[in-house]
């Protein structure tokens, strides 16, 4: 595959009588080469699910929002280069016909741009199956349909964590349904993914995971007296800080929320729609309002919670070049931008030392 080349293709079925039945002709553009300086636009959301316009054929009818999200993405497809669906893909819970409905719904997108996925609780979790959580959420799928329905460049697709490069972006995709804590294989992968990128060529370093390993105001975390998946940021914040992760994004909580640049619960910089200069701390974005019924937020607002929108929506990252990145959050009902920020940072700014991201120096010898 050569970078940026537009390929056209058709999928056919070879019948027993030797005849081939062909589908529609589609086309896609091969990705830019790692580090390429060109306009690159990546849409990110979690928890989409599927639904029928007429409400028919519903197994678990709580993903009506997915229709609007799918519609907005299809409508704007010529301005989208890649889609990342970060877990809770179709909520099939073991009913494979639901996967067929889901792939039919996203087919206009997935046939044209890379449709990348991450593992969520509704893909993987089942008691005694090796998942980090022993809930019934996958309905016994244990990740098998998700791993086979979609390609991910994972070394081990059962583990489902991987890194992927798209032009000036490096994405490190974790799997929150397997253990991520220090000492685990996944922790080593995360550190390797974050540390091995050449930021001069690929300045935009994005961490993705399904459950909120960073910060969330969801009431279901609040009820447990927490604002994250327990052992999430405690385990990983040193890595995000050390390797200067620009943005960490999650699903699982059905709605939108954005933090200030935050480290150890403290805003290292004021929440803003414009950041420039040296890295201060990672901005955490929850974008789990793809389509499944909305969550609720605690009445009390944490200091790190800079923006919230309890509606269906998705995020779009636009890398204009090596020094300017735009994050937009759009509502699915009308495509309107409800929150956004830009990051202007050149390579010297990435190298600059801030809180806990350079080796400490001492005069002692
Ligand atoms: Fe989830």
From TrEMBL:
TM regions (residue ranges): none
Protein name as catalogued: Purple acid phosphatase
Keywords associated with the record: Glycoprotein
Pfam families: Metallophos, Metallophos_C
Stored Gene3D superfamilies: 3.60.21.10
Lineage: Eukaryota, Viridiplantae, Streptophyta, Embryophyta, Tracheophyta
First and last residue of the signal peptide: none
Source species, domain of life: Eukaryota
UniProt entry tagged with the keyword Protein biosynthesis: no
Keyword Glycoprotein tagged: yes
């Amino acid at each position: 595959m050569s970078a940026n080349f537009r390929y056209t293709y058709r999928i056919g079925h070879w019948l027993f009588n030797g005849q081939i039945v062909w589908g529609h002709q589609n086309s896609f553009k091969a990705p830019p080469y790692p580090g390429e300086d060109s306009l690159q636009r990546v849409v990110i959301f979690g928890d989409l699910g599927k639904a029928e316009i007429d409400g028919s054929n519903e197994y678990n009818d709580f993903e009506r929002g997915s229709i609007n999200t799918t519609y907005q993405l299809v409508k704007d497809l010529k301005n989208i280069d890649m889609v990342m669906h970060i877990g809770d893909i179709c909520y099939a819970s073991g009913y494979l016909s639901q996967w067929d409905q889901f792939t039919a719904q996203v087919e206009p997108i997935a046939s044209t741009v890379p449709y990348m996925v991450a593992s969520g609780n509704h893909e993987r979790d089942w008691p005694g199956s090796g998942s980090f959580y022993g809930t019934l959420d996958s309905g016994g799928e244990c990740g098998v349909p998700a791993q086979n329905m979609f390609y991910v460049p994972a070394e081990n697709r059962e583990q489902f964590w991987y890194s992927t490069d798209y032009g000036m972006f490096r994405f490190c995709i974790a799997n929150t349904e397997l253990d991520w804590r220090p000492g685990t294989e996944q922790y080593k992968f995360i550190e390797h993914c974050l540390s091995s990128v050449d930021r001069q060529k690929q300045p935009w370093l994005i961490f993705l995971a399904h459950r909120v390993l960073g910060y969330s105001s969801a009431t279901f975390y609040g009820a447990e007296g927490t604002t994250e998946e327990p052992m999430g940021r405690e385990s990983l914040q040193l890595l995000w800080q050390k390797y200067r992760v620009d943005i960490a994004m999650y699903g699982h909580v059905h709605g939108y929320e954005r933090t200030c640049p935050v480290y150890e619960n403290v805003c290292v910089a004021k929440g803003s729609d414009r950041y420039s200069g040296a890295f201060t701390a990672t901005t955490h974005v929850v974008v789990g309002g793809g389509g499944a019924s909305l969550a609720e937020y605690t009445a009390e607002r944490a200091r790190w919670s800079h923006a919230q929108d309890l509606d269906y929506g998705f995020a779009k990252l636009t890398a204009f070049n090596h020094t300017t990145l735009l994050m937009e959050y759009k509502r699915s009902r009308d495509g309107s931008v409800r929150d956004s920020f830009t990051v202007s940072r050149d390579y010297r700014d990435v190298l600059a030392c801030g809180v806990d991201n350079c080796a400490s120096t001492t005069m002692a010898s």
